[in-house]
Amino acid sequence: EPDVGATAGGILAVLGHNYTVFLRFRGGKGLATSFPVLLSLAPPLVLLWIVTFLASVAATRLLVVGQILGTVAMPIGCYILFPDVVVPVSILALVVFIKHAPRIPAIVNGTEPKLYYKIDSSPEA
């Protein structure tokens, strides 16, 4: 089936992004590479991820919490809304979660940097 090949290729692309041979198996976290795969599997799940991410970041001011909770919400939402693609979505979420998991101790310890914006209050001359 073409869908199986495309899904496997997408998951392998995320793995190749996360563990690239050109950077000695160190790469990205897999979020940006996962979006097109998720979009092809179940487009409404992208919206669920974005809403979960934004709500989590608004509540905690921690980007990594939003990334992790959005990623964890994917298999749960998929199980409820799209049970036919729950296995590939769960594999995709696991691949992304594994790259974010080392940051969990920093969240628990309170050493993870918060999202903030500096507003320069000095008037321009």
Shape: globular
Uncertain segments of ≥5 residues (pLDDT<50)?
none
Number of helices: 6
Q: In angstroms, what separates the terminal alpha carbons? A: 65 Å
Briefly note the structural class of the backbone. Answer: mainly alpha
- Radius of gyration, Cα only, in angstroms? 17 Å
Relative strand content: under 5%
Kindly report the average pLDDT value.
87
What does this structure look like?
The protein is mostly helical. Helices cover 69% and strands 0% of the residues. Helix 1 (2-18) runs parallel beside helix 5 (86-100), helix 2 (31-41) packs antiparallel against helix 5 and helix 3 (43-60) runs antiparallel to helix 4 (63-81). The chain starts with a helix and ends in a 16-residue tail after the last helix.
Which features characterize this protein?
125 residues; mainly alpha; 6 helices; 69% helix
Quick gist of this model?
By secondary structure, the chain is mostly helical. The protein contains six helices and no strands.
Task: Describe the SSE topology.
Blueprint: H1 2-18, H2 31-41, H3 43-60, H4 63-81, H5 86-100, H6 104-109
Helix pairs in contact: 1-2, 1-5, 2-3, 2-5, 3-4, 4-5
